[in-house]
Amino acid sequence: MSDNLSLLAKARVAYQPKLPKALRKGPLKVSILKGAETEAVRDQAAVKALFPNTYGAPVVSFETAESHTIMGNQVNIGVVLSGGQAPGGHNVIAGIFDGIKSNQGGSKLIGFLGGPSGLEHCKYIEIDRALMDQYRNTGGFDIIGSGRTKLETNEQFDKCIETANKLELDAIVIIGGDDSNTNGAVLAEYFKSKGVKCAVIGVPKTIDGDLKNEYVETSFGFDTAVKTYSEMIGNIQRDANSAKKYWHFIKLMGRSASHIGLEAALQTHPNLCIISEEVKAKKQTLGQVIQGVADVVALRAAAGKNFGVALIPEGLVEFIPEFGVLMSELNEVLAHHEAEIKGAGDTAAMVASMCKHLTPASADLLKSLPSGIQAQLMLDRDPHGNVQVSLIETEKLVIEMVAKDLKARADFKGKFAALNHFFGYEGRCAAPSNFDADYCYSLGYGASVLALNGMTGYMSSVRNLTAGIDNWSAGGIPITMMMNIERRHGKDKPVIQKALVELDAAPFKYFAARRDEWAKSESYSYPGPIQYWGPTEVADQTNYTIMLERGALK
Questions:
Q1: What's the pTM?
Q2: Do 62 and 30 meet the contact criterion of CB atoms below 8 Å apart?
């Protein structure tokens, strides 16, 4: 074992993840039960037309059998880590490795370096036991690295075929989020249309929690990431309650959904947590959002409490309807008048020039923003010419506008001193919680079963997660059943439908019923560090979101 591993890392490497019953005797003794044919969640005809060879496949479940005939004794499986890191990725790979090695010792696991580009350009290493054993139950994706290359052109697909043929691959497992698994499904369809025997299989990964449905109860990494953030939030709450002089505004990961913010609130009980989906549902303006925050600050100040903790989702501004209109108009204006705007002078001059081309409502909104945010909106663009929302310092925007709102209130006699934080990368590579260690290993082992049986276009699925691991059920679901058609960069494309926070579901209702009390009191919860050892109810517990969704917590 490497000398650079800490004592904790060495102890974690020795942890043996648990498996659902159906997988414990190895992939040779897994019976595959097929359900009814499936259809896409929406836009069924359009999705079917795009996936004529893989659409409609059944959901499958695994059960233990005395014997089961699979494709062969020796297989070559490739694995790709795609997109941002998420705790537990190494355990997915470990599950695949152990699965195929238990089948036949001569089987090979090929790791493609740097994400999908490694598959495209045939850059790889063979993962042997000595290498694998260094990374079990550890955080990060550093065993082979990750990348964000999208496989979406026939030229790229043909290069992937060359790689698969050269290495004599029986299957490729793509570990990624909704976009990565969508690309995997497209690749599976292309391979099948070309008569390529290599199967393509997905594993659901994202700390944002927005890749979930009936069969994917949670994406891996979410549990660990939110527990990591919640420890830090709890520490800040303890500091706020000790110093009693600062408001802490904490931006959390989650551009497309507020699952992280909601789960962190359920774990820590902050004074305020904005849920983007609620803002959109209520069609709130930026001014109304700010007023709501300022009302909580004023409420606490009236009780002599000039301190508190607020959680802000990363993608908040995209959910504010008027802000969405403003960004669309900014993109359009800059596409045609960029030289004029950027040549106007300082930020104030640029705003004045920009406002000449905006609708009155958007012009008023732009002028109301702090100058730093104005500059970010007009200068920072992505390669497609759009606003880079992830670079907008939303927490600073809220602080500045709340301060302005409070200053205009004649009846506000309190003090408002605010500090800003952004918790993002801190949670992506933490050592996985026991739940994620077990869940990821099970997903990887299940993926090996799908791979050994040549089940292309499927995603590994492990369900019934709140019933104890003895009652977890493993299987696979066709990726096409999760798809709908969305407009991306001016074209209609098949994508896995994102799962947003549901306002009529148990997790949000639980939060909504308690937030008024949390706003005025110090009902702070301090979850502390992730517990790797101790009583099962402490060390192996999952997150509040999934417990509430599955009725395991009232």
A1: 0.93
A2: yes
